[in-house]
Amino acid sequence: MSHGTRGSQDHPIENAHLAVRKAAKASFVGNFVEWFDYATYGYLAAVIAKVFFPPGDDVAALLYTFGVFALSFLVRPIGGLFWGNWGDKYGRRWALSWSILIMSGSTFLIAFLPGYGAIGLWAPGLLLVLRLVQGFSASGEYAGASAFMTEYAPKGKRGLYTSVVPASTATGLLAGAVFIFFLNAILSDAQLESWGWRIPFLLAGPLGWIGRYIRLHLEDSPVYRELAEGADHEPVEAPVRYILHHHKKQIMVGLGVTCLNAVAFYLLLSYMPTYLSQEIGLEADMALLSSSIALAAYILMIFMMGHISDTFGRKRMLITACLLFIVFAVPSYWLLSIGTFWTALFVQLFLCALLTMNDGTLPTFLSELFPTRVRYTGFALSFNTANALFGGTAPFVATWLISTSGSPIAPGWYLAFVAVLALGAMLTIHETAFEPLED
Asked: Is the pTM of this model over 0.85?
Protein backbone atom coordinates (compact mmCIF):
# COMPACT_ATOMS: atom_id res chain seq x y z
CA MET A 1 0.00 0.00 0.00
CA SER A 2 2.81 2.38 0.93
CA HIS A 3 4.63 1.70 -2.33
CA GLY A 4 1.51 2.58 -4.35
CA THR A 5 1.11 5.81 -2.39
CA ARG A 6 4.77 6.80 -2.90
CA GLY A 7 4.53 6.05 -6.64
CA SER A 8 1.48 8.24 -7.05
CA GLN A 9 3.30 11.10 -5.29
CA ASP A 10 6.49 10.76 -7.36
CA HIS A 11 4.80 10.37 -10.72
CA PRO A 12 1.21 11.67 -10.41
CA ILE A 13 0.63 12.19 -14.14
CA GLU A 14 2.08 8.83 -15.16
CA ASN A 15 0.17 7.12 -12.37
CA ALA A 16 -3.08 8.80 -13.42
CA HIS A 17 -2.59 7.75 -17.05
CA LEU A 18 -1.90 4.17 -15.96
CA ALA A 19 -5.03 4.13 -13.81
CA VAL A 20 -7.16 5.41 -16.70
CA ARG A 21 -5.74 2.76 -19.05
CA LYS A 22 -6.48 0.01 -16.52
CA ALA A 23 -10.00 1.38 -16.05
CA ALA A 24 -10.50 1.38 -19.83
CA LYS A 25 -9.40 -2.28 -20.04
CA ALA A 26 -11.72 -3.22 -17.18
CA SER A 27 -14.63 -1.39 -18.81
CA PHE A 28 -13.86 -2.85 -22.23
CA VAL A 29 -13.62 -6.54 -21.43
CA GLY A 30 -16.99 -7.05 -19.73
CA ASN A 31 -18.99 -5.38 -22.47
CA PHE A 32 -16.97 -7.25 -25.08
CA VAL A 33 -17.98 -10.60 -23.54
CA GLU A 34 -21.62 -9.51 -23.24
CA TRP A 35 -21.93 -8.38 -26.84
CA PHE A 36 -19.91 -11.24 -28.27
CA ASP A 37 -22.66 -13.41 -26.79
CA TYR A 38 -25.44 -11.24 -28.21
CA ALA A 39 -23.78 -11.27 -31.61
CA THR A 40 -23.50 -15.04 -31.49
CA TYR A 41 -27.16 -15.41 -30.54
CA GLY A 42 -28.35 -12.87 -33.12
CA TYR A 43 -26.20 -14.05 -36.02
CA LEU A 44 -27.01 -17.71 -35.31
CA ALA A 45 -30.72 -17.01 -34.76
CA ALA A 46 -31.79 -19.14 -37.72
CA VAL A 47 -29.65 -22.07 -36.48
CA ILE A 48 -30.79 -21.69 -32.86
CA ALA A 49 -34.40 -21.67 -34.07
CA LYS A 50 -33.88 -25.07 -35.70
CA VAL A 51 -32.02 -26.54 -32.70
CA PHE A 52 -34.33 -25.42 -29.88
CA PHE A 53 -37.82 -25.18 -31.38
CA PRO A 54 -40.26 -27.55 -33.12
CA PRO A 55 -39.63 -28.05 -36.85
CA GLY A 56 -42.13 -27.19 -39.55
CA ASP A 57 -42.60 -23.43 -39.42
CA ASP A 58 -39.36 -21.46 -39.89
CA VAL A 59 -40.98 -18.04 -39.33
CA ALA A 60 -42.60 -19.19 -36.07
CA ALA A 61 -39.32 -20.73 -34.87
CA LEU A 62 -37.46 -17.50 -35.64
CA LEU A 63 -40.10 -15.50 -33.76
CA TYR A 64 -39.75 -17.85 -30.78
CA THR A 65 -35.97 -17.40 -30.88
CA PHE A 66 -36.29 -13.62 -30.82
CA GLY A 67 -39.01 -13.99 -28.20
CA VAL A 68 -36.52 -15.70 -25.87
CA PHE A 69 -34.08 -12.90 -26.70
CA ALA A 70 -36.73 -10.31 -25.77
CA LEU A 71 -37.83 -12.08 -22.57
CA SER A 72 -34.25 -12.09 -21.30
CA PHE A 73 -34.44 -8.31 -21.31
CA LEU A 74 -37.46 -8.19 -19.01
CA VAL A 75 -35.20 -8.90 -16.02
CA ARG A 76 -32.80 -6.11 -16.97
CA PRO A 77 -34.55 -3.38 -14.95
CA ILE A 78 -34.51 -5.69 -11.92
CA GLY A 79 -30.86 -6.51 -12.50
CA GLY A 80 -30.08 -2.85 -13.06
CA LEU A 81 -31.61 -1.94 -9.71
CA PHE A 82 -29.69 -4.74 -7.98
CA TRP A 83 -26.26 -3.93 -9.47
CA GLY A 84 -26.83 -0.18 -9.28
CA ASN A 85 -27.77 -0.44 -5.62
CA TRP A 86 -24.68 -2.49 -4.78
CA GLY A 87 -22.42 -0.42 -7.02
CA ASP A 88 -23.46 2.84 -5.35
CA LYS A 89 -23.24 1.40 -1.84
CA TYR A 90 -20.09 -0.72 -2.03
CA GLY A 91 -18.25 0.46 -5.11
CA ARG A 92 -18.22 0.10 -8.91
CA ARG A 93 -15.40 -2.46 -8.88
CA TRP A 94 -17.28 -4.87 -6.60
CA ALA A 95 -20.43 -4.88 -8.73
CA LEU A 96 -18.56 -5.15 -12.03
CA SER A 97 -16.36 -8.04 -10.88
CA TRP A 98 -19.37 -10.15 -9.88
CA SER A 99 -21.63 -9.22 -12.80
CA ILE A 100 -19.08 -10.39 -15.37
CA LEU A 101 -18.60 -13.71 -13.56
CA ILE A 102 -22.32 -14.55 -13.48
CA MET A 103 -22.89 -13.26 -17.02
CA SER A 104 -20.07 -15.24 -18.61
CA GLY A 105 -20.95 -18.36 -16.59
CA SER A 106 -24.56 -18.46 -17.80
CA THR A 107 -23.45 -17.83 -21.39
CA PHE A 108 -20.90 -20.65 -21.09
CA LEU A 109 -23.57 -23.10 -19.91
CA ILE A 110 -25.71 -22.49 -23.02
CA ALA A 111 -23.06 -24.41 -24.97
CA PHE A 112 -24.01 -27.61 -23.11
CA LEU A 113 -27.80 -27.46 -23.63
CA PRO A 114 -29.40 -30.34 -25.55
CA GLY A 115 -31.73 -29.41 -28.41
CA TYR A 116 -35.46 -29.88 -29.01
CA GLY A 117 -34.89 -33.22 -30.67
CA ALA A 118 -33.35 -34.61 -27.47
CA ILE A 119 -35.52 -33.23 -24.65
CA GLY A 120 -38.46 -31.51 -26.36
CA LEU A 121 -39.86 -28.36 -24.76
CA TRP A 122 -37.30 -28.55 -21.96
CA ALA A 123 -34.75 -27.29 -24.49
CA PRO A 124 -36.27 -23.82 -25.08
CA GLY A 125 -37.21 -23.68 -21.38
CA LEU A 126 -33.62 -24.18 -20.23
CA LEU A 127 -32.41 -21.76 -22.90
CA LEU A 128 -34.78 -19.13 -21.54
CA VAL A 129 -33.61 -19.70 -17.94
CA LEU A 130 -29.96 -19.19 -18.87
CA ARG A 131 -30.82 -16.14 -21.00
CA LEU A 132 -32.70 -14.66 -18.02
CA VAL A 133 -29.67 -15.16 -15.76
CA GLN A 134 -27.45 -13.68 -18.47
CA GLY A 135 -29.76 -10.68 -18.89
CA PHE A 136 -29.92 -10.09 -15.13
CA SER A 137 -26.14 -10.03 -14.74
CA ALA A 138 -25.47 -8.14 -17.98
CA SER A 139 -27.71 -5.29 -16.83
CA GLY A 140 -24.91 -4.07 -14.57
CA GLU A 141 -22.24 -4.07 -17.26
CA TYR A 142 -22.93 -1.11 -19.54
CA ALA A 143 -24.15 1.20 -16.78
CA GLY A 144 -21.35 0.34 -14.38
CA ALA A 145 -18.60 0.56 -17.00
CA SER A 146 -19.94 3.90 -18.27
CA ALA A 147 -20.18 5.45 -14.80
CA PHE A 148 -16.73 4.03 -14.03
CA MET A 149 -15.09 5.60 -17.11
CA THR A 150 -16.93 8.92 -16.75
CA GLU A 151 -15.62 9.21 -13.19
CA TYR A 152 -12.08 8.26 -14.23
CA ALA A 153 -11.91 10.53 -17.32
CA PRO A 154 -9.88 13.76 -17.28
CA LYS A 155 -11.73 17.06 -17.28
CA GLY A 156 -13.05 18.01 -20.72
CA LYS A 157 -12.55 14.50 -22.11
CA ARG A 158 -15.39 12.53 -20.54
CA GLY A 159 -17.07 11.88 -23.88
CA LEU A 160 -13.88 10.67 -25.54
CA TYR A 161 -12.85 8.33 -22.72
CA THR A 162 -16.32 6.95 -22.01
CA SER A 163 -16.81 6.14 -25.70
CA VAL A 164 -14.61 3.10 -25.01
CA VAL A 165 -17.75 1.47 -23.57
CA PRO A 166 -19.88 1.54 -26.76
CA ALA A 167 -16.71 0.76 -28.72
CA SER A 168 -16.32 -2.41 -26.67
CA THR A 169 -19.91 -3.46 -27.44
CA ALA A 170 -19.30 -3.01 -31.15
CA THR A 171 -15.99 -4.87 -30.94
CA GLY A 172 -17.81 -7.77 -29.30
CA LEU A 173 -20.39 -7.74 -32.07
CA LEU A 174 -17.68 -7.54 -34.72
CA ALA A 175 -15.74 -10.42 -33.19
CA GLY A 176 -18.97 -12.43 -33.07
CA ALA A 177 -19.77 -11.62 -36.69
CA VAL A 178 -16.28 -12.57 -37.90
CA PHE A 179 -16.34 -15.76 -35.83
CA ILE A 180 -19.73 -16.82 -37.22
CA PHE A 181 -18.59 -15.89 -40.73
CA PHE A 182 -15.70 -18.37 -40.45
CA LEU A 183 -17.92 -21.02 -38.87
CA ASN A 184 -20.27 -20.71 -41.84
CA ALA A 185 -17.32 -20.94 -44.21
CA ILE A 186 -15.69 -24.07 -42.75
CA LEU A 187 -18.70 -26.03 -41.45
CA SER A 188 -21.63 -27.54 -43.31
CA ASP A 189 -25.18 -26.65 -42.27
CA ALA A 190 -25.51 -30.05 -40.57
CA GLN A 191 -22.29 -29.56 -38.59
CA LEU A 192 -23.29 -26.05 -37.58
CA GLU A 193 -26.68 -27.22 -36.32
CA SER A 194 -25.22 -30.29 -34.60
CA TRP A 195 -22.25 -28.87 -32.65
CA GLY A 196 -20.74 -25.83 -34.39
CA TRP A 197 -23.14 -23.32 -32.82
CA ARG A 198 -21.83 -24.29 -29.35
CA ILE A 199 -18.24 -23.11 -29.92
CA PRO A 200 -18.71 -19.33 -29.49
CA PHE A 201 -20.69 -19.83 -26.28
CA LEU A 202 -17.83 -21.92 -24.85
CA LEU A 203 -15.46 -18.96 -25.26
CA ALA A 204 -17.44 -16.92 -22.71
CA GLY A 205 -15.98 -18.99 -19.84
CA PRO A 206 -12.29 -18.07 -20.14
CA LEU A 207 -13.07 -14.53 -21.32
CA GLY A 208 -15.18 -13.95 -18.22
CA TRP A 209 -12.44 -15.12 -15.86
CA ILE A 210 -9.94 -12.80 -17.55
CA GLY A 211 -12.33 -9.88 -17.14
CA ARG A 212 -12.94 -10.66 -13.48
CA TYR A 213 -9.20 -10.85 -12.79
CA ILE A 214 -8.63 -7.41 -14.36
CA ARG A 215 -11.44 -5.83 -12.35
CA LEU A 216 -10.37 -7.32 -9.03
CA HIS A 217 -6.95 -5.69 -9.46
CA LEU A 218 -8.32 -2.21 -10.06
CA GLU A 219 -9.19 0.56 -7.60
CA ASP A 220 -12.57 2.25 -7.62
CA SER A 221 -12.87 5.56 -9.48
CA PRO A 222 -11.28 8.64 -7.86
CA VAL A 223 -14.65 10.42 -7.83
CA TYR A 224 -16.34 7.57 -5.96
CA ARG A 225 -13.44 7.12 -3.53
CA GLU A 226 -13.36 10.83 -2.77
CA LEU A 227 -17.07 10.76 -1.99
CA ALA A 228 -16.92 7.53 0.02
CA GLU A 229 -13.92 8.64 2.07
CA GLY A 230 -15.37 12.09 2.85
CA ALA A 231 -15.83 12.83 6.54
CA ASP A 232 -19.47 13.82 6.12
CA HIS A 233 -20.40 11.08 3.63
CA GLU A 234 -23.35 8.88 4.47
CA PRO A 235 -24.23 6.22 1.88
CA VAL A 236 -27.77 6.34 0.55
CA GLU A 237 -29.50 3.45 2.31
CA ALA A 238 -32.08 2.93 -0.45
CA PRO A 239 -30.66 4.33 -3.72
CA VAL A 240 -33.69 3.20 -5.73
CA ARG A 241 -36.21 4.94 -3.49
CA TYR A 242 -33.97 8.00 -3.26
CA ILE A 243 -33.56 8.37 -7.01
CA LEU A 244 -37.26 7.85 -7.76
CA HIS A 245 -38.09 10.55 -5.22
CA HIS A 246 -35.41 13.12 -6.10
CA HIS A 247 -34.55 12.46 -9.75
CA LYS A 248 -37.76 11.39 -11.48
CA LYS A 249 -37.29 13.82 -14.38
CA GLN A 250 -33.76 12.57 -15.06
CA ILE A 251 -35.00 8.97 -15.04
CA MET A 252 -37.74 9.75 -17.58
CA VAL A 253 -35.36 11.75 -19.80
CA GLY A 254 -32.77 8.97 -19.65
CA LEU A 255 -35.39 6.37 -20.52
CA GLY A 256 -36.73 8.45 -23.42
CA VAL A 257 -33.33 9.17 -24.93
CA THR A 258 -32.13 5.58 -24.53
CA CYS A 259 -35.13 4.15 -26.39
CA LEU A 260 -33.66 5.37 -29.70
CA ASN A 261 -30.27 3.94 -28.85
CA ALA A 262 -31.87 0.61 -27.89
CA VAL A 263 -33.93 0.17 -31.05
CA ALA A 264 -31.29 1.50 -33.45
CA PHE A 265 -28.48 -0.53 -31.89
CA TYR A 266 -30.29 -3.85 -32.06
CA LEU A 267 -31.84 -3.27 -35.47
CA LEU A 268 -28.66 -2.00 -37.11
CA LEU A 269 -25.90 -3.96 -35.39
CA SER A 270 -27.44 -7.18 -34.07
CA TYR A 271 -30.54 -8.00 -36.13
CA MET A 272 -29.30 -6.64 -39.48
CA PRO A 273 -27.58 -9.82 -40.80
CA THR A 274 -30.72 -11.84 -40.06
CA TYR A 275 -32.88 -9.14 -41.67
CA LEU A 276 -30.75 -9.02 -44.83
CA SER A 277 -30.61 -12.80 -45.23
CA GLN A 278 -34.09 -13.84 -44.06
CA GLU A 279 -36.22 -10.88 -45.22
CA ILE A 280 -34.30 -9.34 -48.13
CA GLY A 281 -32.77 -12.50 -49.57
CA LEU A 282 -29.11 -11.50 -49.44
CA GLU A 283 -26.75 -14.46 -49.06
CA ALA A 284 -25.96 -15.10 -45.39
CA ASP A 285 -22.19 -14.75 -45.91
CA MET A 286 -22.62 -11.44 -47.71
CA ALA A 287 -24.99 -10.17 -45.01
CA LEU A 288 -22.43 -10.98 -42.31
CA LEU A 289 -19.62 -9.41 -44.35
CA SER A 290 -21.45 -6.11 -44.87
CA SER A 291 -22.38 -5.99 -41.19
CA SER A 292 -18.78 -6.68 -40.17
CA ILE A 293 -17.46 -3.83 -42.32
CA ALA A 294 -20.11 -1.49 -40.89
CA LEU A 295 -19.18 -2.52 -37.34
CA ALA A 296 -15.50 -1.80 -38.00
CA ALA A 297 -16.44 1.67 -39.26
CA TYR A 298 -18.68 2.16 -36.22
CA ILE A 299 -15.76 1.45 -33.85
CA LEU A 300 -13.61 4.05 -35.61
CA MET A 301 -16.37 6.67 -35.64
CA ILE A 302 -17.49 6.21 -32.03
CA PHE A 303 -14.36 7.81 -30.55
CA MET A 304 -14.66 10.76 -32.91
CA MET A 305 -18.29 11.32 -31.86
CA GLY A 306 -17.35 11.10 -28.18
CA HIS A 307 -14.70 13.77 -28.75
CA ILE A 308 -17.10 16.00 -30.69
CA SER A 309 -19.62 15.77 -27.84
CA ASP A 310 -16.93 17.13 -25.52
CA THR A 311 -16.59 20.14 -27.82
CA PHE A 312 -20.19 20.87 -28.86
CA GLY A 313 -22.15 19.31 -26.01
CA ARG A 314 -24.23 16.17 -25.44
CA LYS A 315 -27.61 17.78 -26.05
CA ARG A 316 -26.72 19.09 -29.50
CA MET A 317 -25.33 15.72 -30.58
CA LEU A 318 -28.29 13.70 -29.31
CA ILE A 319 -30.89 16.03 -30.84
CA THR A 320 -29.08 15.97 -34.19
CA ALA A 321 -29.06 12.16 -34.14
CA CYS A 322 -32.82 12.10 -33.44
CA LEU A 323 -33.58 14.47 -36.35
CA LEU A 324 -31.43 12.53 -38.81
CA PHE A 325 -33.06 9.21 -37.89
CA ILE A 326 -36.52 10.76 -38.30
CA VAL A 327 -35.64 11.95 -41.80
CA PHE A 328 -33.56 9.06 -43.12
CA ALA A 329 -34.75 5.85 -41.41
CA VAL A 330 -37.49 4.96 -43.91
CA PRO A 331 -35.52 5.91 -47.07
CA SER A 332 -32.60 3.85 -45.77
CA TYR A 333 -34.75 0.74 -45.36
CA TRP A 334 -36.19 1.32 -48.82
CA LEU A 335 -32.65 1.20 -50.20
CA LEU A 336 -31.91 -1.94 -48.18
CA SER A 337 -34.91 -3.65 -49.79
CA ILE A 338 -33.12 -3.48 -53.17
CA GLY A 339 -31.17 -6.48 -51.91
CA THR A 340 -27.66 -5.95 -53.29
CA PHE A 341 -24.46 -6.20 -51.27
CA TRP A 342 -23.15 -2.76 -52.14
CA THR A 343 -26.45 -1.08 -51.38
CA ALA A 344 -26.64 -2.88 -48.04
CA LEU A 345 -23.07 -1.87 -47.18
CA PHE A 346 -23.61 1.80 -48.10
CA VAL A 347 -26.82 2.04 -46.08
CA GLN A 348 -25.30 0.29 -43.06
CA LEU A 349 -22.30 2.63 -43.08
CA PHE A 350 -24.62 5.64 -43.23
CA LEU A 351 -26.91 4.41 -40.45
CA CYS A 352 -23.92 3.46 -38.30
CA ALA A 353 -22.66 7.03 -38.62
CA LEU A 354 -26.01 8.28 -37.32
CA LEU A 355 -25.97 5.72 -34.53
CA THR A 356 -22.50 6.73 -33.36
CA MET A 357 -23.75 10.31 -32.89
CA ASN A 358 -26.16 8.90 -30.33
CA ASP A 359 -24.11 6.01 -28.98
CA GLY A 360 -20.86 7.94 -28.63
CA THR A 361 -22.64 10.55 -26.53
CA LEU A 362 -25.29 8.66 -24.56
CA PRO A 363 -23.19 6.85 -21.88
CA THR A 364 -21.50 10.08 -20.81
CA PHE A 365 -24.79 11.99 -20.88
CA LEU A 366 -26.56 9.43 -18.69
CA SER A 367 -23.64 9.42 -16.24
CA GLU A 368 -23.72 13.22 -16.04
CA LEU A 369 -27.46 13.26 -15.35
CA PHE A 370 -27.08 11.80 -11.85
CA PRO A 371 -24.96 12.63 -8.78
CA THR A 372 -22.13 10.30 -7.77
CA ARG A 373 -23.94 8.79 -4.78
CA VAL A 374 -26.66 7.33 -7.04
CA ARG A 375 -25.06 7.52 -10.51
CA TYR A 376 -24.85 3.77 -11.05
CA THR A 377 -28.47 3.24 -9.96
CA GLY A 378 -29.87 6.11 -12.04
CA PHE A 379 -27.99 5.07 -15.17
CA ALA A 380 -28.84 1.38 -14.76
CA LEU A 381 -32.54 2.01 -14.11
CA SER A 382 -33.14 4.31 -17.09
CA PHE A 383 -30.86 2.44 -19.50
CA ASN A 384 -32.05 -1.07 -18.69
CA THR A 385 -35.74 -0.16 -18.59
CA ALA A 386 -35.47 1.35 -22.07
CA ASN A 387 -33.60 -1.70 -23.33
CA ALA A 388 -36.17 -4.05 -21.78
CA LEU A 389 -39.06 -2.21 -23.45
CA PHE A 390 -37.46 -1.30 -26.77
CA GLY A 391 -34.07 -2.97 -27.26
CA GLY A 392 -34.65 -6.64 -26.54
CA THR A 393 -37.98 -6.53 -28.35
CA ALA A 394 -36.62 -4.78 -31.47
CA PRO A 395 -35.80 -7.93 -33.52
CA PHE A 396 -39.15 -9.48 -32.56
CA VAL A 397 -41.09 -6.30 -33.39
CA ALA A 398 -39.26 -5.89 -36.70
CA THR A 399 -39.93 -9.50 -37.73
CA TRP A 400 -43.57 -9.19 -36.66
CA LEU A 401 -44.08 -5.88 -38.50
CA ILE A 402 -42.67 -7.33 -41.70
CA SER A 403 -44.77 -10.49 -41.36
CA THR A 404 -47.95 -8.51 -40.65
CA SER A 405 -47.53 -5.72 -43.19
CA GLY A 406 -45.72 -7.66 -45.88
CA SER A 407 -43.32 -4.72 -46.24
CA PRO A 408 -39.57 -5.02 -45.63
CA ILE A 409 -39.51 -1.25 -45.01
CA ALA A 410 -41.63 -1.56 -41.83
CA PRO A 411 -38.63 -1.50 -39.40
CA GLY A 412 -37.70 1.91 -40.81
CA TRP A 413 -41.05 3.39 -39.73
CA TYR A 414 -40.58 1.89 -36.27
CA LEU A 415 -37.10 3.41 -36.00
CA ALA A 416 -38.39 6.85 -37.07
CA PHE A 417 -41.24 6.69 -34.54
CA VAL A 418 -38.87 5.91 -31.68
CA ALA A 419 -36.59 8.77 -32.78
CA VAL A 420 -39.54 11.15 -32.33
CA LEU A 421 -40.00 9.91 -28.75
CA ALA A 422 -36.30 10.41 -28.00
CA LEU A 423 -36.35 13.91 -29.48
CA GLY A 424 -39.21 14.88 -27.18
CA ALA A 425 -37.21 13.72 -24.16
CA MET A 426 -34.03 15.58 -25.18
CA LEU A 427 -35.84 18.89 -25.64
CA THR A 428 -36.75 18.96 -21.93
CA ILE A 429 -33.21 18.77 -20.47
CA HIS A 430 -30.28 21.15 -20.07
CA GLU A 431 -26.71 20.70 -21.33
CA THR A 432 -24.48 18.55 -19.09
CA ALA A 433 -21.15 18.40 -20.92
CA PHE A 434 -19.51 21.51 -19.48
CA GLU A 435 -20.48 21.06 -15.83
CA PRO A 436 -18.45 19.20 -13.16
CA LEU A 437 -19.78 15.83 -12.05
CA GLU A 438 -22.23 16.39 -9.21
CA ASP A 439 -21.29 14.77 -5.91
From this structure: no
